[in-house]
Amino acid sequence: MAASLARAAGVGGTDGGTTVEGGLSGGKIKAKDREEKLYVTVRVRPLSSKEVAQGETVDWDCTNEHTISFKHSQPERSPYPSSYTFDRVFGPDCPTKQVYNEGAKQVALSALTGINSTIFAYGQTSSGKTYTMRGIVESAVIDVYNHIQKTQEREFVLKISGLEIYNEVVKDLLNPDSGPLRLLDDPDRGTVVEKLKEEIVRDYDHLQQMIRICEVQRQVGETMLNDTSSRSHQIIRLTLESYPRGVPDGSPFKSLIASLNFVDLAGSERASQTLAEGSRLKEGCHINRSLLTLSSVIRKLSGGSKSKSGHIPYRDSKLTRILQHSLGGNARTAIICTMCPAHSHVEQTRNTLAFATRAKEVTNSAHVNLVISDKVLVKQLQKEVARLEAELRVPEASFCSEALLQEKELLIQKMQSEMKELVMQRDLAQVRLNELVKKMEADDQAKQLDQGQSASHLPSPGLDIDHDTVLYEDEVVEGAAFGAIAREQQLDRRNRSMRLRQSTSASLMLVQEIRKLELLQDEVGEDANRALEALQKEIECLRLAQAGMNKDAAATIGKLQAEIHELHHQTMSADKKDMPDRGLTSLQALGDNNDKSKADAAIATLEEQLESVQMSLDRMVLGSPASKALTETPSPVKVSTTSVRKKPPSSSSTRQRLFADSPPCSPNGRTSSGFEHNQNTPPQIVENSSPCVYSKSKRPTPGRTGGVSSKESPTVHRRSNSVDIRKMQKMFKTAAEENIKSIRAYVTELKERVAKLQYQKQLLVCQVLELEANGNACDGTEDAIKEDNHTPSAQSPSAWQASFEKQRMQIIELWDMCQVSIIHRTQFYLLFKGDPADAIYMEVELRRLTWLKEHTSETDLQSPSPAVFQDENVAFLSTSCRGLKRERELLAKRMRIRLTPEERDELFSKWGIPLDTKQRKLQLAYKVWTDPHDRDHIQASADVVARVVGVWEPGSASKEMFELNFAPPNSQKPWHFGWNPLSSFLNL
Ligand SMILES: Nc1ncnc2c1ncn2[C@@H]1O[C@H](COP(=O)(O)OP(=O)(O)OP(=O)(O)O)[C@@H](O)[C@H]1O
Predict the structure, then answer these.
(1) For a Cys staple, 234 with which of 17, 106, 264, 783, CB 3.0–4.6 Å?
(2) By three-state DSSP, how is residue 246 classified?
(3) ipTM of this model?
(4) What residue spans in the chain does CATH classification 3.40.850.10 cover?
(5) Ligand 1 lined by 663 (C-beta under 6 Å)
(6) Which residues contact 306 (CB under 8 A, 6 or more apart)?
(7) Above 90 in pLDDT, residue 427?
(8) What's the superkingdom here (predicted)?
(9) Any atom of ligand 1 within 6 Å of the Cβ of 126
């Protein structure tokens, strides 16, 4: 067959002669047309048993593989030839597989190389068309799949559609409910069946299933000649698309697309033979008419009349319209003409042979459909879109900023939930603590009751299962004879035993609670470490950034770094050596005897440690050699931290002492150590100097601080003789000042962080104190916890709410007095709204602010020179005011970014700012948080700041994010910056 096809087409091979001409044209590559005649074969079926029974005789002989001859002699002038020659003639004994192999295979496989292919079965009714086509389709499908499997270098996509033309109506065999389908003329694709279902084939089985559906759906009826006569033309179309595998994304590639049509025509029939009537007759008429059109088309195509101007009546039937490409068009076509050799069908057989003969002359112009496939490209794009959509649904860290944002939000949510969990744990611990207190009180009462009973009665057997008591019972039985003296001794022993047991139990519970606190302490420690590491990193960055400034400045930073390291080591060694010993002694007392004074000492140790950190930080800032060198001030300012801090009181009011004694942080991160004024003071002077040394006269004037005084510095004075040196000196001074300013900012930040740790420590201290109070309660020597009456749990909800409101208004007033950051105010205000869990935060904030407020007045009292501290307070307030001013300016700036013009105008109107005035944003920024007594004003202020600054959306932030951070440490590094674990104090 290959040779025949090649001969007919005049080209070598089936697709080897395909050449590509020209370039791209509308996504297609125009290949050279392959002129090729239809491949026509004839298959003769054997006589059916019925025909044999009817005495039918065979009129035809298959003379050879290409010739079929009429067996009988014909009249000389007979219009019919006695023999016919075709590309192949298959006799009655020829199996369908051979018919496929030799009559259809090449054509079928052409579709895999991008050539449209069509295989027809044409013949009269009951001649064996359906019988033959079933075998052909089956074999072709197997071959197609074999080819796909062998051709691993290409990717194949198969689709199947099926239709029938029944009574000149096109029906979708894969979608029978679709109703009649219309034919449309497509300029590129020719006739197209509208809405014809095209199923993508998954695999061989799926394809077989689809084919079976088509067969089942096809119209079949019983006629006189065929019990299962096909009453429609059936076309099963496979669309085969292939493209090379492994083509890199974005690279152009060529795909092959072709359709393989299996056409099982309805059989021509004579009404006289079929005796059809009614619907069968009507069907027969339609069948014959469409076959007649097919014959006409073939005749016209074969008669040499095929010319571009010649009319081919394709449009006269739907069959020929649909098969137009296969008949004289871009397709390879094989026609298998089936015939019944019986004498009774001789006339129909001659018609079939005549049709076949004409068909032999029809030439097609097949070419390889080599396409830069839009479909493939679209498919690729669709895949890409699907991938991107999937990525959008499942964000990846590196995908886009939005995805990153989402990821961070998720992270924050996770952290928040973890924080909530920790708070819950803390609250739980608090509840348990309260229970412990109650239990101890109950035990105490029981003990007193028991003591009363014991004084007048002997213990009953089984009342106490304690070993001591059992022993006591035995002894009492024996000692009864010894009279009242012995009984008194026994009572004494019993009381001691009970006290010891109670004390041990309380200690154990305390130890448990302290272990929990210890976990929190570790977390605080982690924060301290992180703060320190961040500072080190930042200073390192600064050092690198400023490397080009000048060597002196770089050296200064280096020294500072070294000091920080030294500080680190100091605190570490303090942890290892000093604290455990002192702590051991102190907390042993707490654990063993609940000795309050020793617990005080332990807490004081904590305080000292933090104090030490604080002082080291102060030293770092105040006494940096770099700052000394830079300022070149001959009389450094002296001040003692003791002048501005209370000495630790020795009174039993430990809690009060701790709160008052803590070095709170100002809203701007300042401490009470006079940082702003004493930043150039060396630490050794601070340590050893008397408070009296601090005097206004010795304090550097603004012009001198951090600068160079030519009058007071002989060195500088000498240098002033040289203009160049002066210039250099000025440059050096400016750079150094900038440098110092930056470092101060970082150190200030560190101090802020330390202050935050103070908050956390205060919380710990509160809890330790409560434990201590519990211990006291055990001994029954101290009053119950005084603070209990102030906790929300000890109050009714309405009383707590009233207390909360009162505290809040106090805080707001203090904010206003102390010029606290409005962002801080907003955060705090929006976060703490009266939940019972807010109590501790409110208390700490109130104490902090109270300290700040009182501090200014205390310094007045303690200062040897009130005027100095007056100045200092003024400076402090002025710094706070400057910070506040900066915040308000920032607020005004951010209004432009965060708010639309409409939103801004709305706010201006609400706040009574005329829209025709200038600097409206600034006006608004200066209006918020200015009235601490007007609740509406406060709420509105908080709303504006939160909205504009975007600190967080109200209600979405975790309280633990605010100052008192109980978040679990991210790092597993042990904490070594700060106080020792409480357990070491307890020797646990
Ligand atoms: N080559 C063959 N060998 C044995 N039996 C055959 C052969 N061809 C056809 N038959 C039998 O002949 C009968 C008619 O065949 P078939 O239905 O395929 O004819 P048809 O051309 O499709 O008829 P119609 O046009 O009415 O649908 C069937 O019973 C079939 O089994």
Answers:
(1) 264
(2) coil
(3) 0.99
(4) 2-378
(5) no
(6) 300, 312, 328, 362, 363
(7) no
(8) Eukaryota
(9) yes
Q: What is the DSSP letter of 664?
A: P
Distance CA 280, CA 271 (A): 9
Report yes or no: 847 and 811 within 8 Å, Cβ to Cβ: no
Residue identifier of the C-alpha nearest atom 23 of ligand 1: 126
Encoded amino acid at 591, one letter: G
C-beta neighbour count of 839 within 10 angstroms: 21
Residue 766 one-letter amino acid: C
Biggest CA-to-CA distance, the chain:
162
What does the alpha-carbon distance between residue 881 and residue 820 come to, in Å, rounded to a whole number? 9
The H-or-E segment that residue 446 falls in is helix 401-456
Nearest-angstrom CA–CA distance, 150 and 233: 34
Contacts made by residues 21-25, CB under 8 angstroms, sequence distance 24+ = 24/372
The continuous run of DSSP H or E covering 410 comes out as: helix 401-456
| Identity of residue 388 | L
Cβ distance 634 to 707 under 8 Å? no
Estimate to the nearest angstrom the gap between the alpha carbon of 767 and the chain centroid.
Answer: 39
264 contacts 133 by C-beta, under 8 angstroms: yes
CA-wise closest residue to 769 among 527, 580, 517: 517
Which of 534, 562, 558 is closest to 546 using CA atoms?
Answer: 558
- Ligand 1, residues 125, 126, 234, 339: which to mutate, most atoms within 8 A of Cβ? 126
Give the E-state strand segments of 8-130 in sequence order. Answer: 20-25, 28-31, 34-37, 39-44, 60-62, 67-70, 83-85, 88-90, 117-123
Tokens 């304090």 correspond to what residue? Answer: 699
Question: Does residue 131 line the site of ligand 1, with CB under 6 A?
Answer: yes
Instruction: State whether the beta carbon of 46 lies less than 6 angstroms from ligand 1.
Output: yes
226 lines ligand 1 (CB under 6 A): yes
**The dihedral sign for the CA sequence 529, 534, 535, 537:** positive
* Kind and range of the H or E run holding 777: helix 723-779
Residue located nearest, by CA, to atom 16 of ligand 1: 128
CATH class of 2-378: alpha beta
Residues 973 and 986: their CA atoms lie apart, in Å, by 23
CA dist., res. 40 & res. 677, Å (int): 110
Closest to 648 measured CA to CA, from 613, 692, 685, 611: 611
Residue 621 has pLDDT above 60, yes or no: no
* 383 CA to centre of ligand 1 in angstroms: 47
Amino acid at 214: C
In angstroms, rounded to a whole number, what is the distance separating the alpha carbons of residues 93 and 43? Answer: 10
Please write down the HEC assignment for all residues of 790-822: HCHHHCCHHHHHHHHHHHHHHHHHHHHHHCCCH
Mean pLDDT of 290-303: 86
SS3 call for 923: helix
Lowest mean pLDDT across 299-308, 400-409, 506-515: 400-409
- The model's pLDDT over 334-352, given as tens digits with 9 standing for 90+, comes to 999 999 999 998 988 999 9
Distance 863 CA to ligand 1 centre (A): 123
Mutate-to-test residue for ligand 1 from 49, 223, 226, highest number of ligand atoms within 8 A of CB: 226
Rounded to whole angstroms, the Cα distance separating 165 from 263 reads 11
- The secondary structure of 250-280 as a DSSP string is T----EEEEEEEEEEPPPB--HHHH---THH
CA atoms within 13 A on the CB side of 815: 26
* 129 C-alpha to ligand 1 centroid (Å): 6
Cα(147) to ligand 1 centroid in Å equals 30
CB 156 within 8 A of CB 361: no
Overall pTM > 0.90: no
Residue type, 795: Q
Q: Which range is least confidently modeled, 173-182, 253-262, 278-287, 615-624?
A: 615-624
Rounded distance, CA 842 to CA 979, Å?
Answer: 25
Kindly give the number of the ligand 1 atom that is closest to the alpha carbon of 94: 1
Looking from the CA of 435 toward its CB, the CA atoms found within 13 Å total 8
